[in-house]
UniProtKB/TrEMBL annotation:
Protein name according to UniProt: ABC transporter
Listed GO biological process terms: L-amino acid transport
Family the entry assigns: Belongs to the ABC transporter superfamily.
CDD domains on file: ABC_TM1139_LivF_branched (cd03224)
InterPro entries: AAA+_ATPase (IPR003593), ABC_transporter-like_ATP-bd (IPR003439), ABC_transporter-like_CS (IPR017871), BCAA_Transport_ATP-bd_LivF (IPR052156), P-loop_NTPase (IPR027417)
Keyword Isomerase set for record: no
Domain ABC transporter stretches: 4-234
SMART domains, sorted: AAA (SM00382)
Domain of life, per lineage: Bacteria
Lineage: Bacteria, Pseudomonadati, Pseudomonadota, Alphaproteobacteria, Acetobacterales
Organism from which the protein derives: Acidisphaera rubrifaciens HS-AP3
UniProt GO MF annotations: ATP binding; ATP hydrolysis activity; branched-chain amino acid transmembrane transporter activity
Keywords: Amino-acid transport, ATP-binding, Nucleotide-binding, Transport
Length: 235
């Protein structure tokens, strides 16, 4: 049974149809990467999994349970956490306070914080610094850390390397790999940085205009000349 399965999912905003029938699955223990151009529907897909916007058609299953139409808080309680595009940390709160905002009822905040500080030692050094004064890379670490505080089993990451210098982006990708290999965390990753993200992934999907146009292992997708031309040249 897949950890997450979408079948024929459609979603949008008013007259705009952003997702036009999505079929994809994520197995427990995988890193799955979704690539696509600006406006392809990647963020909408992540948001729809979390219940907002709601799917207009199709079915979203988590561990075999139909969660289509569920409110976001109920979906989160099943062990799904999201680090949204643009980080959206609380700028006036300290690192520590931001992390505590991510602790779900039932999660152990002290254990969560220790885990986050182990993964990102820079955050430990800056635990009393306000979120808004962190560098872009540190803010991204904080956004991922905050999502981890809920002790999720499925982590949805929307563009974690956006706007980061290459060296910092590599650190973020390395942290995602560690979470997957060491803790067995399952990850669905949306990325513009297709090369790094497909190298990291077990499998990937290509999204074009709200539809999946290709899928395969990370290596298979990286080897395809059409995908190289569309997403990897100059990258
Ligand atoms: P990017 O890489 O630029 O973030 P994306 O692949 O994540 O793009 P989405 O943000 O999901 O794409 O957008 C898909 C389509 O839905 C686009 O046409 C976009 O303009 C539209 N859209 C997204 N959010 C909204 C909204 N809140 N209201 C109306 N239309 C929206």
């Amino acid at each position: 049974m897949a950890l997450l399965r979408l079948s024929g999912v459609r979603a949008g905003y008013g007259a705009i149809e952003a997702l036009r029938g999505i079929d994809l699955h994520v197995e427990a223990g995988e890193i799955v990467t979704l690539i696509g151009a600006n406006g392809a529907g990647k963020t909408t897909l992540m948001m729809t999994i979390c219940g907002r916007p709601q799917a207009r058609a199709g079915r979203i299953e988590h561990e075999g349970t139909d969660i289509t139409g569920w409110p976001t808080h109920r979906i989160m309680r099943r062990g799904i956490a999201q680090s949204p595009e643009g980080r959206r940390i609380f700028p006036r709160m300290t690192v520590q306070e931001n992390l505590l905002m991510g602790a779900a009822a039932g999660a152990d905040p002290a254990a969560g914080m220790a885990r986050v500080f182990d993964l990102f030692p820079r955050l430990a050094e800056r635990r009393r610094q306000r979120g808004g004064t962190l560098s872009g890379g540190e803010q991204q670490m904080l956004a991922i850390g905050r999502a981890l505080m809920a002790a999720p089993r499925l982590l949805l990451l929307d563009e974690p390397s956006l706007g980061l210098a290459p060296l910092i982006a590599r650190q973020i990708f390395a942290a995602i790999r560690t979470l997957n290999r060491k803790d067995g965390l399952t990850v669905l990753l949306v990325e513009q940085n297709a090369y790094q993200a497909l190298r990291l992934a077990h499998r990937g999907y290509v999204l074009v205009n709200g539809r999946i146009t290709a899928d395969g292992t990370g290596a298979e997708l990286l080897a395809r000349s059409d995908i190289q031309a569309a997403y990897l040249e100059g990258g």
